[in-house]
Amino acid sequence: MRTPSVSSAIRYALVAAAVVGSAVVLVAARKSTFTPHEKAFYADPSVVEYVNPGLTITVVSAKIASNGTISVDYKLTDPTGAALDSAGVVTPGPVSLSFLAAYIPAGQSQYSSYITRVSTAATGGATATQATTDSGGTYQTVSTGEYIYTFKTVAPTGFNANATTRIGIYGSRNLTQWDLGTSYADTYYDFIPSGTGTPTPRDIVRNADCNSCHGSAVTTTSTNGLAAHGGSRRSVGVCIICHQPQTSDPNTGNSLDMKVFIHQIHMGSSLPSVQAGTPYQIIGYQNSVNDWSTVEYPANIERCQTCHNPKNGAAQTGAWLNSPGAAACGSCHDNVNFATGTNHAGGPQPDDSECANCHIPQGELPFDSSIMGAHTIADQAPGIPGLNFTLVSVTGGSAGKNPTVTFTVKDNSGNPIPMSSFTTGSNSLSLTMAGPSSDYGYTSFGSDTTSTPGYVTESATSATCSGSGTCVYTFTHAVPAKATGTYAIGIEGRLSITLLPGTTSATTTNYGGVNQVIYFSVDGSAVTPRRTVVAMANCNACHSYLEVHGDLRNNVTYCPICHNPSNTDASTRSSATVKAQQSLPPQGINFAMMIHKIHTGANLEANFNQDYIIVGHGGSENDFGAAYASVPSSIPNTGVRYPAMGPSGSVADTAECYMCHANGSEAVLPIGKNPVTDPQGLLNPSPTTTSACTACHLNTGAFAHAVTQTDPKLGESCDVCHGTGAPFSATQVHAGQ
Q1: 159 in a domain, yes or no?
Q2: Residue 35 shares a structural domain with residue 147
Q3: Which residues contact 104 (CB under 8 A, 6 or more apart)?
Q4: Do 400 and 518 share a domain, yes or no?
């Protein structure tokens, strides 16, 4: 038994701060078994040592007796492996558990629960069967931390003792008494009751696939990442025990089968039924209305491999390719009626027996009826030659001079692409210069660059190229005469192609090259690249392959050159297609502010009654706070929902900064040097750190706090309290349970 030796008040600080007069003395940071993304990392070490927050559930064995009695032997431990008392008497924090039991019927591939209930619609009348948890079973204590639960539910007479059977356990450990929140965990265990043979469980999608978007599995206590139903269901293996063909919503009639409703949730606003004006809803616990009609999938919706990851190690990871069926396919294509043949080129299909004949895994051509072909993303289709840039060097780039860039442009086979290819239609090839790298935004490259504040972009199609594909281009704009430090030059370009020309499937698409950035000194000082704030791999964990502005921009290192502190949408606002936008002040588009506001999305309106609308190319309205143009006006919109899940299982947990930021950069302050132009904001111009942080904390109190901590001459003092290692570092205050 542990002996408590601390106050119940927990001091949240990465370092201890002792205030003597006006001096703050910082004590060296201590080591912790928790990560900086967890609340326990900053708690009083003695409290953490006593409590050891976290919960692990492990199944020792399970059985179904010949009379149908189901039982499971399991252990409860903290993350160190120390046994936990479920009552919370011998060890801190009571543990509450729920139990599931299901099997895979012969000839089928999904679980069927031994435990069901009949759910009645909120309006009465309609009912539906739903898989559920056991209730009223008995517990036996083997020893502290090890228990046996015997289900009240009994397997029916004649149950299949040779079927793959799964026991699921999920639960929570209440540590709120020590201000350490609630720890959640779940687990599952597969076995064959007869003891003969090896279980063959359903295994298609793994947690890591979900957590690439819903929250990185970086915490010791496993409280970040996939979570549902208040936070206690945390693994796909447990979800599929209940979310299978048995279970549906009596209120809407919608299936809650995993292969159906997960597709429909992620399709959201792209569902044909939603496009036609019918919202996609699930009525959940206590008749809560869960409307998924506004979900915008962050990757290309045709990239099935984002979830169906072929490298995830799952035994049946290729099921989506090899076992097509009406339920799964019709969940996305919900305007297809397989019984009548409506919207199905193959006509009526009474069952799934013929699906794989037409919908083979991979055909000969893109856009055919094979599964891979039907989900071809045009600009990544087989047959795209590819566009690859290399920035070799910059010469003559001293202050007051015109820099010369040496670069190559080649296809995927290494063949040079002539400059003439970039001069037709929407094809283009450009070089962009900005500086200094310490902070872009307020460097003028001439009176003719007012529409591109802080940078200059020039077409590079007049470059001189050798037969090997090495090209040389000299800027017509010079580096400013008084420039110092390091400047940057980036490259962007795209080409168009018609795939399957002369056929009924002919498709014309653009494809871009990956932006490259090269740095050079303008005054002989050491070359210093721009600081690394976010990682492209972090963006693509959700977006798979992030590309914007018509395939031209796809590298987060390149984006801040244009999305700099002085830039706004002023050049496009006057041509806004929504007339009301034309008379409003320009919208600031500095990268830190813009990305924070975009990902805050729905919370802008819900929490601050604000929107964030950028007028883009052609006067397009891009509203990230309230509405999507793709969603019919009959359906209320809620804006962007950041997909990271908090401990309780709800999305839009924007406090999980590490999902985007690299190496704790959210706490490296100040984040820049230049004030941010924000004509529609509460403070214009706004100091750089203030602008970034108030893009999420968008209220007058936060602004007022920032203003009081900013000296007109000396600038912001944010780093004193919120910088790396400070008492209220950004990493600490955003730490989860």
Answers
A1: yes
A2: yes
A3: 110, 111, 112, 163, 164, 165, 200, 201, 202
A4: yes
